[in-house]
Design a protein that fits this description.
Distance between the termini: 35 Å
Helix content: 25-40%
Number of strands: 20
Number of helices: 14
Strand content: 15-25%
């Protein structure tokens, strides 16, 4: 929503809105000319041409209620994003269960370096700055395409990227087949003159509807794959190979083997848009990551590294713990705040398996987001099942203060304390790393 507000302001539209985030988080919006109001302020609604809301906003929100009473059009975020995308000549939609924000940010760096006319809509803030919007023209629109509530079906992409597929959002998809059907619909929306870029093993799952397909992956049977892969102590170096030919060399600055696949996806998309191999490789080598993805927060008083990661799905947790293993000398202690009761309940076994890869875990209450409390799928439910499983030592913390106390007592020099979740658990990471 914040990136959409910046995009509207950059196009000269007067924008106002309410947001309950901390004041410091909203300063960037204010600098862009967005007028921030408390949710109770409904007077401004009468001056609006439209009111845009996210799926997390309740039906009875004061400003939404005021808009309906005044017969002012209301649009859910996904519909508004679809409308905005029509302002541009061509849309690039980056979809998938994981990696959307990182790959979208990578593409924006590549397009910027190539001097392309484009606007980038990123669901996070690149570490290099600039927030979630890159405004450099109207030829291309590079955007995250979120599968939640089938939001991405408002887009009509020229290029659609499917980074990976793992079941998620059980509150709006009944099973994996239901979710795959939504991705197939997105592919159907893709221009017949464009293409679909997808992770090689995923191609077999999708119905590509006769669209031209470019695959990427770790194996040589993918159209785009890496060779000569080496760990450089933090990131990875590798050769970009396309159609059997080594095209360029990349040396990443960001940790995690999964970022090789992210680089391959970004390169495959950019290459289809006519950007040279050398420009792609130089931009990917310089890419500094996105805030909230394996962020180093500092050290505890006893010398343990504190890392925060947005991981909130079992697949992301597995990757985050694996990456932490490469960056620690001793133990990985994982602190996890589950995100939504429905996800925690539906993927309980997968969460237990993923978290059991740590040496010790601290579980917090579930961040409810748009849901109401339920014992099933609660943080305590997850903790109890991990403890009963017995593969990893586990404890439960009812709040961030208690979690910080436990973490400080359980970690020492050489350890990595990995704080994970998509809610506000980053506050616990800040609290722990400030105790020096």
């Amino acid at each position: 929503m914040r990136s959409l507000a910046r995009l509207c302001a950059a196009q000269g539209m007067p924008v106002s809105g309410s947001d309950d985030s901390p004041e410091a988080v909203l300063e960037d919006l204010k600098r862009c000319g967005v007028h921030i109001l408390p949710p109770s302020d409904t007077d401004v609604i009468r001056e609006c041409d439209a009111v845009v809301y996210s799926a997390a906003v309740p039906y009875y929100h004061p400003q939404l209620s005021a808009a309906r009473a005044a017969n002012i059009p209301t649009l859910e975020r996904k519909a508004f994003l679809g409308l905005l995308s029509k302002m541009f000549d061509r849309t690039i939609a980056i979809s998938g269960t994981h990696g959307k924000t990182t790959v979208t940010a990578m593409l924006c760096d590549i397009f910027s370096r190539a001097g392309m006319s484009f606007t980038g809509h990123i669901g996070g803030a690149p570490r290099s700055g600039g927030g979630g919007l890159v405004n450099c023209g109207r030829e291309w629109f590079v955007t995250e395409a979120c599968e939640y509530n089938r939001s991405f079906l408002t887009l009509s992409p020229y290029v659609t990227a499917v980074l990976n597929l793992q079941f998620d959002h059980p509150d709006c998809y009944k099973d994996m087949d239901d979710m795959v059907a939504a991705y197939n619909a997105l592919i159907s929306n893709t221009s017949k003159d464009g293409c679909v870029v997808c992770f090689s093993p995923t191609e077999r799952t999708l119905n590509t509807n006769g669209k031209r397909v470019v695959t990427f992956g770790y194996m040589r049977d993918a159209d785009v794959h890496p060779e000569d892969v080496r760990f450089n102590g933090r990131g990875y170096s590798f050769a970009l190979v396309k159609c059997g030919i080594k095209r360029a060399f990349v040396e990443t600055k960001i940790p995690g083997k999964h970022n090789i696949a992210n680089c391959l996806a970004a390169y495959a998309v950019a290459s289809e848009c006519g950007i040279s191999d050398d420009i792609c490789a130089s931009a990917l080598s310089a890419f500094d990551g996105v805030k909230g993805r394996f962020d180093y927060k500092g050290k505890t008083a006893r010398g343990a590294q504190v890392i925060y990661d947005y991981a909130h799905h079992p697949g992301e947790i597995e990757v985050a713990i694996s990456t932490a293993r490469q960056n620690c000398k001793k133990r990985v202690v994982a602190m996890f705040e589950p995100h939504t009761f429905s996800r925690t309940r539906a993927l309980m076994k997968e969460f237990i398996d993923a978290l059991s890869a740590a040496d010790e875990v601290i579980i917090l209450p579930t961040y409810k987001a748009r849901e109401k409390y339920e014992p099933s799928g609660s943080g305590y439910d997850l903790y109890s099942r991990i403890a009963a499983d017995g593969r990893v030592r586990a404890c439960y913390a009812p709040d961030y203060k208690k979690a910080a106390e436990l973490a400080l007592n359980k970690t020492s020099a050489g350890d990595v304390l990995l704080v994970m979740g998509a809610g506000t658990v980053w506050q616990a990471a800040d609290l722990i790393s400030s105790c020096t």
